[in-house]
Amino acid sequence: MTADPRAPQAARNLDLDRLLAHHKLMWRIRAFEEAALRANTDKLVLGAIHPSIGQEGVAVGVCSNLRTDDILASTHRGHGHTLAKGADPTAMMRELLGREGGTSNGKGGSMHIADFSVGMLGANGVVAANIHITAGAAHAIKLRGEDRVACSIFGDGAINRGPFLEGLNWAKVFELPALFVCEDNGYASTTRTADMTAGKGPAARAEAIGLPAMEVDGNDVVALDEAVRDAVAAIRAGGGPRFINAKTYRLTGHTAADPDGYRARDDVAAAWKRCPITRLAQTLADAGVRGDQLASHERDAIEEMDAVYDDAKAAPWPPLSRAFADVQDVGDPRNGAY
Amino acid sequence: MVTMTYGEAAKNALHEEMQRDPTVWALGEDLRRGGVFGQYKGLPEIYGPDRISDAPISEAAIMGVAVGAALSGTRPVVEMRFADFALCAVDELVNQAAKARYMFGGQAKVPIVVREPMGMWRSSAAQHSQSLESWYTHIPGLVVVCPSSPVDNYGLLKSAIRCDDPVVYMEHKNLWALEGEVDNNDPLPLGRCRFLRKGTDITLVSWSATVHETMAAAKTLNDAGASVEVIDLRTLWPWDKERVFDSVKKTGRLIVAHESVQAGGFGAEIAATVSDVCFRELKAPVKRLGAPRVPIAYAPPLEDTVRVTAAMIAETARKLMKM
Fold first, then answer.
1. Min Cα–Cα distance to chain A from B277, Å
2. Contact A138/B91, CB-based, under 8 Å?
């Protein structure tokens, strides 16, 4: 695996407009997650939610380099990825609350959030399942002769499941247009991944299968943006699958209900200082962006997501008939249907 | 009218569907050599490696890739080689293929056919002989098909490929060489049973290879003077409830016979439903005949002890008819 050879942020030529858009999008994700946590406290989100607070850099660094018609398959911690891929937060929040007008009409909730209209093939409740789905989407893209790319973002816990081996091997054997991003937050659910993982980690495993693999600081959105841009360009040019391990840190519990007693408070406090939003804001400030402009991103995002939450609260439940819709074409799912 | 084997019938059906629809492709282990039972022979040369695709021995990847490819505009035909091996891909089938349409609110469908050769076949023992069709009937979202003859394997595979639902398509390994006439080129409807024999004294329902035992039993019973109705269910989900009810209402007696384990088998579902709906018309208790709840043994005599045979079906029918 190649260490990131890039120079520190300050020395680089920065595309300020692009980075301002990244800053704004990261704040929108953060504000969406904060609103979702509020909805959880308000007992309006009844199922599990897995907030991505602290991991916004990965969602933005990856998805900003995907076209709308590129494919993304995500994990249980998928709100940020979905928003960054272009989904409408109003429909997303309605989905979290199980309401009419949700992305999946209230039938999937947080863990199955999906928006096929922007190429987002779903968050997945089964760790690593999205790796195969991504390989399959990439296989279809190749069969159809298209120039699209399929990407999956999964956690470091996923590297100990079979699909990591089977799916990466498949993508390499068929030289598929697939990007695999490990969003490495160091924890598999509430267990330190390092304690349960043999060998040298995600990138080394991917490299052993033959994928060009790279380690990137996922909280440095400038570095990740460049790494993903290069990887996607290579993949789109027919170069076969690639792998990026993006190191990050989950700043909240595993779920909204997780008290996070397994991590030292000092470690979490230190991690807040490495938060990707704070870091990008510092980079932008160093480059001369005014503080009030950066503050407006935060304010606008909170305002937007507050309105999104208010909308979802007021939205009706789906009609009960929806429980029997979209099961399958053949057969009647109701008991006693004869 | 053309005579062909059960295996050739499926190959012809796949060939014609691949000609008809360029988005259809097949993937599985050893397909480039024609498949482990020769059921793809000749197709690799016609369609090339993209559309008749080899795969690593990665059942979970084969199934999961098919799901992703189905969500992305293609119609994969998955070859699992043995139904037993599909158990390596249960998450991909049950949690992904069967759920995606529903849990994503109808944003996409998963048009895959999962071919799972099933059943006892020449001392194949515990891990290459199972009939697990009833498992899949329990999963919302899946269609389950178990053809017993060349004509049905031809017409039902065509329908399965055209169906937008994930279809678990279970061919019986003992039937590959069975010859029969295929009388037209049309798909056969999923969810429709076939009456193999009309009669008024008793209804015998079965599917897959057990259909042939059932037909042999019906002949014996007929020779002894009974009028026997034989139904090949063909599709287990959805199953053709109305026609089974009509038959039982006429005959007043029902035996469901299948190769799979009797406990929790699909015969139980049929027996319970018929007992409920046809209670007034029943002249005798509904009977199920399935395997005892033991794994399948290697030694032929031990293997044979768990089979549902024509003799067992005929004897049970005689008791029900007090013959």
1. 9
2. no
What is the 8-class DSSP label of residue B254?
Answer: E
pLDDT-flagged residues of chain A (< 70):
1-12, 337-338
Contact A143 B140 (CB under 8 A): no
Which chain A residue has its CA at the smallest distance from B104's CA?
A104
- Does residue B94 register a pLDDT over 60? yes
Per-residue pLDDT tens digits for B35-81: 999 999 999 999 999 999 999 999 999 999 999 999 999 999 999 99
Tell me how far apart the alpha carbons of residues A56 and A275 are, in angstroms, rounded to a whole number.
Answer: 9
Pick the CATH number of A46-85+107-288 from 3.40.50.970, 1.20.1250.20, 2.40.128.90, 3.40.50.880: 3.40.50.970
Q: Is the pLDDT of residue B220 over 80?
A: yes
Q: The whole model's pTM is what?
A: 0.96
DSSP-assigned states of every residue in A145-192: T----EEEEEEGGGGGSHHHHHHHHHHHHTT-SEEEEEEE-SEETTEE
For residue B157, what pLDDT is reported? 98
Q: B40 Cβ partners below 8 Å, 6+ apart?
A: B11, B14, B26, B31, B34, B52, B79
- Beta carbons of A325 and B69 less than 8 Å apart: no
CB distance A329–B165 less than 8 Å?
yes
- Identify whether the C-beta of residue B176 lies closer than 8 Å to the C-beta of residue B5: yes
The pLDDT value given to residue A337 = 67
- Find out whether A62 and A261 touch, Cβ atoms under 8 Å: no
Q: Which among A104, A135, A162 has the least Cβ separation from residue B107?
A: A104
d(CA A213, nearest CA chain B) in Å: 21
Closest approach of chain B CAs to the CA of A256, in angstroms? 22
Closest CA to B194 of B229, B238, B144, B228: B229
Q: Across the interface, which of B74, B95, B141 has its CB nearest the CB of A327? A: B141
What pLDDT is stored for residue A5 in this prediction? 47
Catalytic-residue membership of B15: no
- pLDDT category of residue B210 using cuts at 50, 70 and 90: very high
**Residue to substitute from A71, A103, A127, A139, interface B, most B β-carbons within 10 A:** A139
A259 class by beta-carbon count within 10 Å (0-12 exposed, 13-18 middle, 19+ buried)? exposed
Give pLDDT, residue A7.
Answer: 45
Q: Which domains, and CATH codes, for chain B?
A: 2-182 (3.40.50.970), 194-320 (3.40.50.920)
Report the distance separating Cα A115 and Cα A179, nearest Å: 19
